[in-house]
Amino acid sequence: MRVILETKPRRKPKIPIEAEAITPQNFLIKNDIRVYEGNKERKLDEIFYVTTEGPAVSADQVEIVLSGETGVIKRVGEYMNAGRIVIEGDIGMHCGNFMSAGEIIIRGNADAWLGREMRGGVIRCEGNADHYCGAGYRGEKRGMRGGTIEVMGNAGDYTAEYLSGGEVRIMGDCGDLPGVEMRAGTLIIGGDCYRPCGNMTGGTCMVFGTAGAMLPTFISTGAEVREFCSKRMEMNVFRGDVANRGKGTLLVRKQ
Amino acid sequence: MKVEDVVCPFCGCLCDDLVVEVEGARVVSVENGCTLANEKFLGDHRLKAPIRKTDRAWEQVSYDEAIDETVGILLDADRPLLYGWSGTHGEAQSVGVHLGEILGALIDNTSTVCHGPSIMAIQEVGHPGCTLGQVKNRADVVVYWGTNPIDAHPRHMSRYTTFADGFFLSDAFRERKVIVVDVRRTESAQVADEFVKIDAGGDYAVLAALRAIVRGKRSLIPTSVSGVSREQLFRMADTLLGAKFVAIFFGLGLTMSQGKYKNIRNAIELTAELNRHTKCTISPMRGHWNVYGSNEVFTWISGYPYAVDFSRGIAFYNPGETTSIDVLRRGECDACLVVASDPGAHFPKACAEHLARIPTVQIDPHVNATTHLARLQIPVAVTGIDAEGTAYRMDGVPIRTRKLFCGTYPSDTDVLTKIYDRVKEEKKHG
Amino acid sequence: MAELLVKNAFVIDPLSGIRGEIMDIAIRDGKIVEDAGANAEVIDAQGCLTLPGGIDSHTHVCGTKVNFGRYMSPEDMRAGRTQRKGVMHVTSGYSVPTTFGNSYRYSTMGYTTLLEGAMAPLEARHTHEEFTATPHQDMLANTLFDGNWSIMEAVRDKDLKRAAAVVAWTLAAVKGFAIKLTNPGGTEAWGFGEDVHSIHDLVPHFGVTPAEIIETMIRANEILNLPHSVHLHCNNLGVPGNFRTTLETIDRVPDLNSRRQTLYLTHVQFHAYGGSTWKDISSKSEDIARAVNSRPQVAIDMGQVMFGRTTTMTADGPMEFKLYMLHHNKWSNHDVELETGSGIIPVFYSRKSLVNCVMWAIGLELALLTRDPWQCMLSTDNPNGAPFVKYPEIIALLMSRRFRDRESELLDPRTGHYVPLFAIERELDWYEIAVMTRAAQAKALGITGIGKGHLAPGAQADIAIYPLKPGELDPAAEYKQVMAGFGKTRFTIKRGRVVARDGEVVVEGANSTIWTKANIPPELDLSADREFVKKFEQYYTVRMSNYPVQDVYLPRGVCIGTEVSL
User: Using 50, 70 and 90 to split pLDDT, how confident is the model at A29?
Assistant: First the structure.
């Protein structure tokens, strides 16, 4: 089944749409999908031109395609457990929250909290991701636990905050404190970043660009060779964050 | 008429020992207050009546008209924002939260541009703190980090710390050691026993280094961290470890420099670590006299201390998404009610521009920067002068502000209750 | 005015000696009366279990540290959110619900009166504000005196009258209800990061011992004729081997009151540990119960732990720090000048932890081994042991051996080695449960006189009608039904109005706060005592005239006046 959702023009286009109901499993079972525009409930076809093609007997046979003014549509794919979502452009906050399986492809940029508290599945963003990519929720001890997020462009601040499993791969640069509070899982940064892995207690982070303002509380433990985009690079290896009881591993490309 | 033990409604110190002289409906003198208090009580120039902006000018309208128009604006909106709250009493804040609830609005207070990051850090690692009297009576080491009390909380040092004698310190000024950490030598640094100058944005690294030192990892500290020499770091750590009671106070130097809530988190984790060796507490220097009150009221009603979004019928909280600066900057919100604060003076330009673009109503006794962004302003009594109600001091202690005389203005609670009742009526029939 | 007639109620009213009779209950103007008029609205209870409204004698629902627990835990808030509905406000929170959340959930369970476990006098105003926002239960405040400087000085000077004067002045000033002592002496020591480790340790600087503080306060309490006894959270909470401290404390309690206990020990499960380290911690519930059984002057509540996550919050600052060092969770602390302390930390009680399994067993053992249900009340020290919404599950466990056996299979297999629970056959009956969840509380708190806890004419019309038919239901077998039944009333009636029906609250509330005022003779009035006033202004950071809680905070306050016996 292929569901094509194209945004209709709106009177107040800057008010975000909360669309946690847009998941493959919902299109399989529900007829009447509702989204929210501010404090007003809207039917799906008030916000989108909806076209459905073909049948499906399970959620993994459902593909949803979103296009138009998608940059303000939030919570798409929340709790998704199968199937595919393709966004032909930018996507709003909280895309793929709690996702446990399936695939989300974003052709443009992703707003904040991409893949928050993800459990499994794959998210691929061809543009840039904003702050808190692959992060957790405030107050919880564990954030993203599984799955893979790949961002072809840059990411914002606090990428993979509270990472507890899975892999987050940013091909470009990150902002401030990527991998902060991380405890397990893998964070890969292809470009530059600033103050990586503050308060890290476990897991592995690899920076293939430069790490600006490295924190003083990481202990140098040697050197290793790692591969990135088919290139072998020499990396300095650190253990930390020693301000904490940190047993994480931070590798930074030798300059 | 002389009134004693008056509560000052200006800063988070919430001094309650002022003595004021009242003549009719005016305060004519203030004793014991700082310059901020004097200005608050004596320089009180009120807007006389509700005003509405027309094409050419401001016109006076009645309270009923103003309230009706406000109700209309709020009901028409799809994503209204109720902002401010820190400059009024708790009972009014309470009505505000319930108003946000029935409207399905966003409600936010001034924490959002001030100690919001402190709250976010507390939500990650907790808050090991105490009331100010514990500091006054016990602390032998006081640290002011990224805050300049002489300027922003003028009586803090004399009422609660540096110069305040306490039960266990009878000669506080001599027995107490004060450390000031800042990016420049402020007035507070001038009266400190030790000044630690930090490179801008370097607080996180310095706090990490201090934590490592307290955990016994001196050997890995480099010769300097963010402009602070290793010697000074060791000296500072030793002072903290050797103290009987360390009281750390911090302000916007930490909340609004790079890293924001992560800076606070690091400071709190340092405090928690120090508690394994000695007594240590940490406290935010809250700005507005009742911003903590708005946090308390928001929390016991909605579960969250600021940036609450009721648009889905439940309470949702996510700083960065539901915070005022963000919803204004993105042009999301389509109406705004400002109560007891002055976003026009404090918010970034893009946000102020948006406030001017959408229907904005302000409930405030005085003409201020926000007036020029609003289309309607409703003057009310000043809490602590001609209205009374509960306030929460920066350490959480609740004190009731006094009503010094009966004025002619309605209070925030009066106006908000009318708005609430009318909205409720409309929603029942609409 | 408003008349209501509840027909066909299967009533258990222990204070009136009714052990299960079908009867009608007539209500007029918020009180129970002999007969109702012809115009009365009729509710047919259809033979369902009808009890006086539930009374919780120890719960943390309102005040500074509770609100701390809320705003530091957005993850707890999001775990329990409900929508606005009818008159019901939005609620949030799982283990530390918002005030409306607490009120609705308690009302759904049939509770109409709550005693807030701890209120620091300096911050009483905050507690009272939250009381008003918990609108469907009448509220009472346990007022903290454990680290009170004036009290410790009076104890040091062996000046019993002065201690009584301090209590009287403070309770009246902050509109508190009863004397609460939490780790007496320990909270003051924590002001400089220390603690006390036995009831005979000297509190630094003040030179008094916890035993002396407790003894003086007990006597002061009886001089003031306060309705409730001293309410004590013993020293050494949570420490392996602490049962000795508890027994020592119990041993010293005199019998000074014929109407109720002379000392109420709270959440005793946390104080009933044998062993000496976390590795060999065991249950000493048998020893504790034996002591309680032979002393009618002592009453306790369980402090039951239930598995799952929750938030601990007490005035026992040093104990909470110990939990931080053990679990490294986010930790908050809030010491209150001249008065007391507090700490908050989230915890997770796990079936995979032997220690937690032992704790779970001890609470149940205390209830089953205490012979007289009037002496052991149901509680979880909400939310420290578990959120109060778990009370129905606890009731079901106490009424069913089978349920306990089923649960034991899920525990760490070594548990039986450390606890006697699985050998205990006793199953509590409906009457005993009714006693443990309301009648005993009313008696212990001394509020039967104002019409609480019973259904005789003249009583407040606070009634809970549960969808359970004792005659047709075997609680030992149908424990799931018992659990569901106590979890949601068919009707909760408060002061003669139906406030909750099948899980939904249907009216706006207007509760009362109950406080005490001892009629102290003028020579003991501290507000006229120059020394007291001078020290107050010197060491507190608020002015004495701004300290008392103004009348406006108790819109429908109920003051219980007492005569002082000097």
Answer: confident
What is the CA B215 to chain-centroid distance, rounded? Answer: 33
> pLDDT by residue (tens digit) across A47-58?
999 999 999 999
What are the pLDDT digits (tens) for B30-45? 999 999 999 999 988 8
Minimal CA separation from B269 to chain A, in Å: 9
Test B332 with A176 for CB contact under 8 angstroms: no
Alpha-carbon distance of A11 to A8, in angstroms, equals 10
B243, B155: one domain: yes
Provide, as residue numbers in chain A, all residues whose Cβ is less than 8 Å from the Cβ of C330: 139
Same domain assignment for residues B228 and B346: no
Amino acid at A35: V
Chain C interface, best mutation among A20, A36, A138, by max C CB count within 10 A: A138
Average pLDDT over residues C396-411: 97
**In a shared domain, residues B70 and B123:** no
Per-residue pLDDT at A245: 86
CATH of the domain at B371: 3.40.50.740
Task: Tell whether B8 is covered by a domain.
Answer: no
B297 with B418, same domain: the answer is yes
Which of these three, B284, B307, B335, is where a domain ends?
B284
Q: Say yes or no: B328 and B370 in one domain.
A: yes
Beta strands in A2-161, from DSSP E residues, in sequence order:
2-7, 17-18, 34-37, 40-43, 48-53, 63-67, 73-74, 84-87, 103-106, 122-125, 148-151
Contacts of C329 in chain A (CB under 8 A): 141
B218 touches chain A (CB under 8 A): no
Query: What is the spatial distance between Cα B311 and Cα B80, in angstroms, rounded to a whole number?
Result: 9
Task: Give the three-class secondary structure for C489.
Answer: coil
pLDDT 10s digits, C205-238: 999 999 999 999 999 999 999 999 999 999 999 9
Residues of B in contact with C323 (CB under 8 A): none
Residue B416 lies in a domain: yes
Interface membership of A231 toward C (CB under 8 Å): no
What confidence tier does B430 reach under pLDDT thresholds 50, 70, 90? Answer: low
pLDDT tens digits for B196-208?
999 999 999 999 9
Do B268 and B120 lie in one domain? The reply is yes
Owning domain of residue B164: 116-284
Q: Which of A93, A113, A219 sits opposite B220 (nearest CB)?
A: A219
Contact A229, A170 (CB under 8 A): no
Compute the C-alpha angle A55/A61/A62, nearest 5°: 80
The chains in contact with chain A, meaning 3 or more Cβ pairs closer than 8 Å, are: B, C
Q: A76: Cβ–Cβ under 8 A, 6 or more apart, which residues? A: A19, A20, A22, A23, A66, A85, A87, A91, A92, A95, A96, A104
Q: For residue B30, tell me if it sits in a domain.
A: no
| Domain C51-458+460-504 belongs in CATH node 3.20.20 | yes
B425 touches A: beta carbon within 8 Å: no
Regarding whether B418 and B352 lie in a shared domain, the answer is: yes
Tell me whether residues B123 and A199 touch, CB distance under 8 A: no
